[in-house]
Predict the 3D structure of the following.
Amino acid sequence: MSPRLRIVHCFRNPVGGLFRHVRDLAAEQATAGHAVGIIADSTTGGPYEDALFAALSPSLELGVTRIPMRRAIAPGDAVAAARVLRHLRRLQPDVIHGHGAKGGAYARLMGTALRLAGGRPARIYTPHGGSLHYDAASIKGRLYFTAEHWLERMSDALVFVSRYEADTYGAKVGVPRRPVTIALNGLRPAEFEPVAIGEEPRDLLFIGMLRDLKGPDVFISALARIRDRTGAAPTAHIVGSGDDKARYVEMVASLGLDRAVSFHQPMPAREAFALARVVVVPSRAESMPYLVLEALAAGKPTLATRVGGIPEIFGAASDALVPPGDADALSNAIAATLAELPSATARAERLRQAIRGTFSIKAMAASVEAAYRDALAAAAPSGSVAITDARP
């Protein structure tokens, strides 16, 4: 029997796909008998995220610790880092797994501090897109990629959630000098059960973080274009929260879409799927979005952009993806899908069956644990390392 591990996941933002990934991974690891804990930001999220933490906490032997963490680099980072280090000293983990740019920095810097004090934790990093979304030619991009390159020296392994993420890291940061695993985001078997449409559904659903990276502004603009062409806008629900929500509410009002579009606070994805006929994911950038997986697994006709790992999900059906940031293309795709809903639903069912065997939580957790054990067993080799796909 494999030795029991003490595992701590460190990340900043407890919302969206990153939070879903960590919750699933932590739950699977706890079920496997490991002692697991979480360190996350205390200033982001709301009642919905608090409820998710509360549901997960009883299974986490090392608990949930919330510490204020700023998104941007700031003087307060030193205070947060010191608190993270004190907590890690108490927990004495075998593995510190950092998620996202800020969580990855804390995990690797504080993990290295523990090593200097005599500990031997494995330092694991998963970007989840994060800093990799920056333009390599921009000043901010160069700053972040230089930091990523430097922090890799303090990493024992890199785990990516898509081939796209691994390739982007190699192109922007440099060919990895540490062992790399691709562990595709996974779903539970129950999530592959179709979701029935509820009473009085709207045409479209946007669900996700309300920030321009996710494209809600493109979605709203596409609705206005359809209204201008046909005289009526498709009806839509927008589900989510974020600092930019007020701007999108104002955008809907200024375009005269108040009657067609309604906003809702965050809710479980499968609950939201019952509210509309078609799911729209108009992101400008992604890594391996859970929302697309969840929507297809639920049998929902899904319109998405050709970004990140989304083509890896759609496979042979990727020609249906639309360019990011293009409201005209999105409006055309929406109109065509709503005009041919039976065909769109049949395509969604084929995709549901196609992804079922590939995107599994158990396969994801097994491949991540293998990366942990390899990192604990030996020092990372120097030089470039071949990437191993962790697929079922």
